[in-house]
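Appendix B, example 12.
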Amino acid sequence: MKIGFIGLGIMGKAMAVNLAKAGHDLYVMDHHQEHIDAVAAFGGHASNYAEIGAETEVVITMLPNSPQVKEVMLGEEGLGAKMHAGQVFIDCSSINPLASKEIGAALAKRGIEMLDAPVSGGEPKAIDGTLSFMVGGRQEVFDRFVPVLKLMGSSVVRCGDLGAGNTTKLANQIIVAANIAAVAEGFMLAKKAGVNPETVFEAIRGGLAGSTVMDAKGPMMLSNNTKPGFRIDLHIKDLNNAIDTAHEVGSPLPLTSQTMEMMQYLKANGMEKCDHSAIAKYYEHIANENLYD
């Protein structure tokens, strides 16, 4: 299949590589030549809007936020103007679901179908092809492209009509953020009370408090590893979208708002490019104690 792929960041590059490894003909675009070269090593090639619009069956984007997706798809010289009826657009970016619906409505006028299909799992799962896809869109379009998405993820679930994928992703990001904060808070309690947080981690990870978040982020906190699998600034973006959407639909988000302020503190102190497990640094500051030795 001829696939256009736009956005080769931490996640997108690994996702595109998995598609290329599976033998698909990949037409890629990104602002960074080294990212294009990395995918080209597996058979992808650098492209442009005109070629992608003319040659591909489906276009996948993995971009930072709503404005970037709108610019690519709805801009006057953007890709949407180059595409034709019968093509499909799959947006794997995590954006405001209201923006997904707006983009989908505009493309539908040109006979272009759309799925919103944000992912969860971070860089490690992007690399090994075990991401979780949360998808919104028509059932027929979803069924047609499930095999493509399964080359990049181990879980592909249709959550409803267009916009439902990003609504599900917002719920995911709320739960992940609050969980990371709770892990950091619990570890700090242990450290301040004289119990080794690593021992606490091993003792509770198999019980009800255990989670994928704890298993992935707990060791990072305990080893002072802030290398980004998912950056603070990106999680701030997601929580902003969650808060905006919640205001639109009248859903209270007190825990989300508090966790957002922790991340804003980290951003204000130059840690926006760190992994979101760096929420532990907020607790280390206010408790005047390190979790790691």
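The chain is about 55% helix and 15% strand. The longest strand covers residues 153-160.
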